[in-house]
């Protein structure tokens, strides 16, 4: 189950990218896009499906990598463990302090896993549910990146294949394509922020309560 979830985490962003790109191109370049799809449909369908699955997985991994880079360079306050580590230190529950985000993540994960297991404050079911929630947040973040790349791909094809027309219909199609893509990016971005905030809040509360219950001395000894 966990392996399937992680596989879908990489597969879905690629599928969303492909679907969104095809729909966008169908709006702005309908004749060219239908011609390309007809040529693809005339070939080996099974081979195309298999190649599409592997291609979607590869793209999804690339989008996840870009998302990870963005999270550590441009979105440093999202899924940041520094506040909870510093709060625990201020409360006297731990002696360590998170001087930067990476150090805080190492400390918080070490604390979490020392509290995890049978007979300990954090149960394995809770850990699995929170891991799934974190995977969902990162999946939304990677899909957001895929949606941005879908818009960029569509605009690139418009420049290379298409030609500017002053007629009302092509302009309306182009505007509709832009609005559709921007709305899709906004939806995935909003979902990523919301799910990340929920996952972070649950993680922080559980960890803080677990450490407060066990006490400072035993925690420091384990860390």
Rough shape?
elongated
Order of helices and strands: HHHHHHHH
**Total domain count:** 1
Number of strands: 0
Describe the overall structure.
Helices cover about 80% and strands about 0% of the residues. The chain has about 220 residues and is mainly alpha-helical. It has one domain (about 1-220). It starts with a helix and ends with a helix.
Write the layout of secondary structure elements.
Blueprint (H helix, E strand, L loop, with lengths): L1 H27 L1 H12 L3 H29 L8 H9 L10 H14 L9 H37 L7 H47 L1 H7 L1
Helix pairs in contact: 1-2, 1-3, 1-6, 1-7, 3-6, 4-5, 6-7
Q: How would you sum up this structure in a few lines?
A:
The chain is mainly α and 223 residues long. The chain has helices at residues 2-28, 30-41, 45-73, 82-90, 101-114, 124-160, 168-214, 216-222.
């Amino acid at each position: 189950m966990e392996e399937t979830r992680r596989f879908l985490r990489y597969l879905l962003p690629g599928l969303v990218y492909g679907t969104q790109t095809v729909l966008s191109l169908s709006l702005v370049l309908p004749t060219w896009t239908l011609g390309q799809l007809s040529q693809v449909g005339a070939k080996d369908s099974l081979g195309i499906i298999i190649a599409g699955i592997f291609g979607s997985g590869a793209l999804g991994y690339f989008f996840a990598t870009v998302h990870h880079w963005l999270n550590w360079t441009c979105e440093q306050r999202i899924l940041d463990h520094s506040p909870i580590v510093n709060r625990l230190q201020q409360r006297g529950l731990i002696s360590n302090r998170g001087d930067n985000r990476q150090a805080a993540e190492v400390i918080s994960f070490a604390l979490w896993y020392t509290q995890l297991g049978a007979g300990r404050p954090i149960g394995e079911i809770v850990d699995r549910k929170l891991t799934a929630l974190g995977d969902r947040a990162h999946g939304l973040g990677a899909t957001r990146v895929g949606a941005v790349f879908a818009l960029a791909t569509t605009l690139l094809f418009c420049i290379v294949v298409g030609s500017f027309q002053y007629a009302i219909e092509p302009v309306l199609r182009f505007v509709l394509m832009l609005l559709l893509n921007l709305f899709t990016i906004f939806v995935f971005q909003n979902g990523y922020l919301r799910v990340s905030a929920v996952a972070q809040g649950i993680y922080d509360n559980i960890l803080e309560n677990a450490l407060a219950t066990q006490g400072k001395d035993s925690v420091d000894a384990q860390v």
